[in-house]
Amino acid sequence: MSNRKLNVFLPLLFAVVLALGMFLGHKMPGSNNGGATVFFTKPAKGPLQEVMDLIKAKYVDSLNTDELQQEAIEGMLAHLDPHSIYIPPAQLQQVNEDMDGNFEGIGVEFNITADTVNVISVLSGGPSETAGVQSGDKILKVNDSLVAGNGITPEKIRKLLRGPAGSMVNATILRQQKKVQIPIKRGVIPLYSVDASYMAAPGVGYIKISKFSATTYDEFMKAIRGLERQGMQKLVIDLRQNPGGYLDAATRIADELIDDQKLILYTKGKDFPRTDYKTKRPGMFEKGALAILTDEGSASASEILAGAVQDWDRGTIIGRRTFGKGLVQEQYDLDNGGALRLTVARYYIPSGRSIQKPYGKGHGDYDEDIVERYHHGEMVNKDSIKITDTVPYTTAAGRRVYGGGGITPDIFIPFDTARFSPTLTAIYTRNAFGNFAYKYYTSHKDAFKQYKNAADFTKQFQPGNELISEFKTYAKTDSVPGLDRLNAHDESEIRVRLKAMLARQLWRTEGFYETINADDPMVKKALEVVEKDAPLK
């Protein structure tokens, strides 16, 4: 281009650049605050960060600013709902492991009594069993760290035993008064969420789900297939004391129970558009009689599953009113290694009801709700249940149901308040059942070899007077009161619970539930209901 032509276009080029600069300047932060526009500015700090910076730089004494920040975060969250929480970095790994359904370690269950780490049970097929660790062993040292008689805590021993899969743990074990050195190669240890699955009666399967983790659906499907091979035609699902977990796990299980193209739930929030979750494909158990067991500890994902079954009249809900958590959280990782679990939406079950109980009176009032239910009489009398949402909803068959505070069961089973006797309360709080069962089992191992499985044990083993007398002697040394004047109920409870804890020593949670459920009124009622298989009205 010639100089003459360039001179013609230069004024036009400057005009375009000037106009573009004015436009961009108008759009930049700070352009309307009366000051000059600066093209490259840092975003303004909020007052919270300003205060933190000033405290770090100017405060008269040294402070742990991490603790200050945690308290500030928790203070903000206290003004939100009770389920928006901050997870500190030190707790995040354990929280994630619990929800992921596995961790990396050696595969033993232990307890600590009198500063001694006792191996309660060894995971079948896990690293410790492969290495030769046995129930009844006492762990004295982990690598070079002495753990016996050293003020050891469960958290400390877990840190010593857990580590990357493939790494080694050199454990010093005390077995029958002899020290044994056992090298153990760590592996991936499953954290099961299906605690038990067995045939509770001819043709009736039972599945206990303790939480909804990343592995729950696969565990549930494995249990269903196993029970169907044993002739299952009817099913009882136990969700008592299940605090919930992953939404996906609950909806996938619901899809196995409810036929196709039915709404399971929908979610929506201020910045969270409505999302529908529907059944998508033929399920494994869409036709047989179904009962769901719930109580005041059944929350969140448990309530989604129970609510969908109730709203579609697919089965019978048996037990007590559920917790009442109808909020959806998403977890956001933070730069400090912690996480924020923030409520982003509410969920609504097929009838359109929200089952979230009120929380407007503060977290303290919310946390005391279960205690208030007990004092109000709701645990023993269905007519005492407070309905906070008086707008009625209807199930697919036209039955009236209510929201605003959990799922109210179709069949109510009262709480056994007699279990709060001073003697039983002392036994439970001291873990006397578990500690004694471990001690008794390890000194009578050969006597238990005659039982092939939990079903065989449940039918044949009876806690005799000699066992009960030995337990009383043990419990007295732990300052349990009233053992010489037990009433009939307390004595019966002791026999039932001891039998179940001994079954747990042999077959872990599977054995515990198969044994304890034989005398459980809620399970008995569920078996009666599914065997009748009468339609709900």
UniProtKB/TrEMBL annotation:
GO molecular function list: endopeptidase activity; serine-type peptidase activity
Keyword field contains Protease: yes
Record bears the keyword Methyltransferase: no
Highest taxon in the source lineage: Bacteria
GO CC term (a single one): outer membrane-bounded periplasmic space
Pfam families in alphabetical order: CtpB_N-like (PF22694), PDZ_2 (PF13180), Peptidase_S41 (PF03572)
Family indicated by similarity: Belongs to the peptidase S41A family.
Gene3D superfamilies: 2-enoyl-CoA Hydratase, Chain A, domain 1, 2.30.42.10, 3.30.750.44
Protein's name according to its UniProt entry: Carboxyl-terminal processing protease
Keyword terms of this UniProt record: Hydrolase, Protease, Serine protease
InterPro entries noted in UniProt: ClpP/crotonase-like_dom_sf (IPR029045), CtpA/B_N (IPR055210), PDZ (IPR001478), PDZ_sf (IPR036034), Peptidase_S41A (IPR004447), Tail-specific_protease (IPR005151)
SMART domains: PDZ, TSPc
Residue ranges of domain PDZ in the record: 92-162
Organism: Chitinophaga niastensis
PROSITE patterns named among the record's database cross-references: PDZ
Biological processes, Gene Ontology terms: proteolysis; signal transduction
